[in-house]
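Researcher: I'd like a structural prediction for the single chain below. Treat it as a standalone chain; there are no partners to consider.
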Amino acid sequence: MERQDKGTYLLVLEVKEDQTIAIGRRPLTDFKKGTYLYVGRAKNGLQGRIRRHLSKKKKRYWHIDYFLQKAKVQEIWIKPDFFDECPTALKVKSLVKDSSSPLKKFGASDCNCASHLFYLPKGKGRLKSLRRTLSFEKVEIHGNQA
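Model: Treating it as a single chain, here is the predicted structure.
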């Protein structure tokens, strides 16, 4: 991640068991056990944003901060110097036809997208081909999520 410190990223997340989570001021929402994809963007400080997502000790500000209290980051995909967060979310939705958005406007309160969080009912089986189709690179996760 040394090149450009800005861009679009995807977090591959795992929820180990069914959870009911309060996301900010939103009503309690049920999240199923399984794999989720979250699409985000950092206009500056991509490395810092990713470190923040990996940290468990932080002030909750964004929707993803609340979700990450119960979910674990499994993979991180990035596309440096690329800022098409919304088109990427739409492409994920179109490529993973059986995906669903468990909470409307999750991570998308400042745009017209339905959501930037997607549940993948068939799990991780197709992630490698999805990452390649989207032209994102996988980065190593360093340290533990403490």
